[in-house]
Design brief:
about 300 residues; Rossmann fold; 8 strands; alpha/beta
Length: about 300
């Protein structure tokens, strides 16, 4: 059950929004999602170790242009944690597909950051004409992933992934270590909202979350393998990379080459968590690509 504090936090930055629970499939997990705005459907997919509130600086800028949907992936934020659940890319992609189909969304703009960007791309590959366009911010599809962000992240994530000692380290997450890892994804660490970290800590204290975190970090190879689906995307794709993203230029170019007619944009003065650093630019890109996609239809 979603706590009232979680609802209050989200509605604190999005007072016109509505948060609900949705069961993704028969016998499947319930997810918390936010709906707000009016216009064509935009589905926002969050990054690893965050939740829909990652987009708190972007969504208010989009409500006059889109009906925005953002949800906590199963196991994340305030969505259900299911014992033994699979957190590799194919299973997470299926959750996104089920979310869109359950709400019967069509002509969707799929956008995501980090892990969410990779899932936006792979979901578009399998959903076909339900997807109008994809905008992928800092796709998370290379090894060793978050370990590139900082020495602190490298040490902690290596231990979390490790056999035997991994569960112990995953259960030891604290506010300082989480804040330190997140700051490694920012060009300017001052862009990390303190209250957002507090909210993430609350979700991370839920029973079973440490197993979710470990499964996600250990599942990175499946996101790398998922690049094979990029060639199947028929919808227009805009790849957006921050100039200080963890990905390397050759990896970005390789993704552009994999995707038919993909366009690529570079965000200045930002790193992997661009939604907290360049919200105005991200909103502008989403609005402008939507207008271009509509005029080309």
């Amino acid at each position: 059950m979603v706590s009232q504090n979680a609802v209050d936090y989200t509605l604190g930055w999005c007072p016109d929004g509505k948060t609900e629970l949705l069961t993704l499939a028969d016998g499947g997990p319930q997810v918390r999602y936010l709906r707000v705005g009016h216009g064509p459907a935009l589905v926002l997919l969050h990054s690893i170790r965050t939740q829909l509130d990652l987009f708190q600086r972007i969504i208010p800028k989009l409500v006059d242009h889109f009906t925005v949907y953002a949800f906590d992936f199963p196991g994340f934020g305030w969505s259900d944690i299911e014992p033994g659940a699979d957190y590799r890319e194919p299973a997470m992609r299926e959750h996104v597909v089920n979310f869109i189909k359950k709400l019967d969304l069509r002509n969707v703009t799929l956008a995501g950051e980090s892990m969410g960007a990779t899932l936006a791309l792979t979901t578009a590959a399998v959903l076909g004409d339900r997807v109008k366009q994809v905008v992928a911010f800092n796709a998370y599809d290379y090894l060793p992933g978050v370990e590139r962000s900082s020495l602190l992240a490298s040490v902690i994530i290596k231990h979390v992934r490790a056999p035997v000692i991994g569960p112990i380290f995953a259960a030891m997450e604290s506010r300082p270590t989480l804040a330190g890892i997140l700051k490694g994804g920012l060009h300017d660490p001052r862009n990390l909202p303190s209250d957002f970290v507090d909210e993430l800590v609350k979700g991370g204290k839920r029973p079973g979350y440490s197993k979710v975190a470990r499964a996600m970090y250990r599942g990175l190879p499946s996101y790398v393998a998922a690049r094979s689906l990029y060639a199947q995307i028929e919808a227009p794709v805009t790849l957006v990379y921050a100039d200080h993203d963890w990905s390397r230029p050759a990896e970005r170019e390789a993704n552009r080459d994999r995707i038919k007619r993909a366009k690529m944009i570079t965000l200045r003065n930002a790193s992997h968590i661009s939604s907290l650093e360049q919200p105005e630019e991200i909103a502008r890109i989403l609005i402008e690509t939507q207008l271009k996609a509509s005029s080309a239809a």
